[in-house]
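Input set for joint prediction.
Command: fold jointly, output tokens.
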Amino acid sequence: MRTRPGARAGQYAALLGYLVFLALPFLWLLSVAFKPARELGSLHPTWIPEHPTLGNFRQAFDEQPLLHAAFNSLLAAVSAAVIAVVLATPMAYVMARRPTRLARAASGWVVVSQAFPFVLVIIPLFLVLKNLRLIDSVPGLVMVYVVWALPFALWMLVGYVRAVPVELEEAAAIDGAGRLRTLVSVTAPLLAPGIVATGLFAFVTAWNEFFFALVLLKTPEKQTLPVVLTHFIGTEGVADLGPLAAAAFLATLPSLAVFAVVQRRITGGMLAGAVKS
Amino acid sequence: MSSATEKRRTARRAPGTGPPRGTAGHGAWFLVLPALIPVLALSVGPLLYGILLAFTDAQSGRTAPTRWIGVLNFSDLLHDTLFWESFRIGLVWAVGVTVPQFLLALGLALLLNEDLRLRWLARALAIIPWAMPEVVVGVMWRLVYNPDAGILNETLRDLGLGDGRDWLSGLTTALPAVIVVGVWAGMPQTTVALLAGLQNTPRELHEAAAVDGAGAWRRFRTVTWPALRPIALAITALNFIWNFNSFALVYVLTNGGPGGRTRLPMLFAYEEAFRYGQFGYAAAMGCVMVAVISVFLALFLVGRIRGGDDA
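tokens >
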């Protein structure tokens, strides 16, 4: 379709505006992370650090148990992702292929559960986990994350199952393959990329999660990265800007990496679920 | 999901052969259990327990047994001006974030749907806010808003627009300042959803309309928008709910301050439950929030059913 030159120019101007709005805050975070304390104290901050340094990163590791926190985050996010996908895949399969009343009720619940104010769920969970002595432990947090990741995992997976042609399964059945055999050797391989994308998305949501971790984890050595990050901001709200920015930047890297790799699949899968389920 | 929608979809999938096919035959209910049991145990269960708690005087660290007190928490809540103030702030915040978020996302989605040169860069950048932990987004914008070392004030000074101020601690500026952050953080998801909706609208319709001499605005109104409406409605209702429930962003940016001007309902309930130990009272707050949200959830479900019909 042809577009008039004037309109084109307007479109580029608008796009430029969006690029600036989206990129500048992140670039500023990078700038602060690599600036020495002296430049941060200056009254006229600059975009590019004059004497870039890694000192903020070293200081961040000295001030807070970042390595511990990163390990806890990794443990929680990987376990939650793996368990959520393992639990969700069979159900997604049923929901996509044979929407029984139970599966449909579950699908309705998936939507409803997105709408809870978490505080209504966290208070009872806090009490129950406390009685089970699972407060202040990563396994307790993982249990919460799994359930929290299930709705979206289901949604994405249903879309991926629908994309596998039923005809392939039928052909295998006609060729004499049993139900299990068909699932394992025909459906599963085609579903694998979708399962991986779903798992990575669950990983990112758990890696980024803050509220449950804040409530459930009390000892500094047990806390995840987002919670530890808030310790850089003192009680008075005064922050040591350099180390804060350095730590914040590090905390973003894993999810950015995951998104960069599977962005297309994640958005595709989520939308397939959201639009069609 | 309406049964009419379901029937139609089934019919499309397997013309004239009855029920949906595939290897999930009878007895497939068994496959639902692994996901269903944890969900029942850790979300339906706690939800019901939470509603029960709202009718008790449950507190943390109390030795006396918890008692059933009926609707006392709710009648107290009715007179709690601080709660209703936070409720009002929550609504202002949710509307203030959701509406610009939608409009900006719609604009960006329309741009990304065109054949523009820097499209890939915009797509790549749109991932950043989405992938970032909310805590990091909060930290990042604190650095931008910082009264001395922040880039916002420096830019304003350079442009000759005032001497800079402490945006996040100003009584009048704090809420608008956090709203901007909320818009920034949530815009990408909305953009991607709308972009997918745009790509589902048939190109031929556009071209036919263009041949008929319809201008850009008319083509948008008569072709694009009708196709986009169901998904737009659904995403807006969901965004509103998510925004109303949000916590981490504002917790990091202002922790509800200054003077409670940005104290969203979730922050209020969190403090009530985990700082003052008033579990029953906080649970009652959660119930009130659920009641309000249900209205928007209904809107979303309506939008989704329509979306299903159009898909």
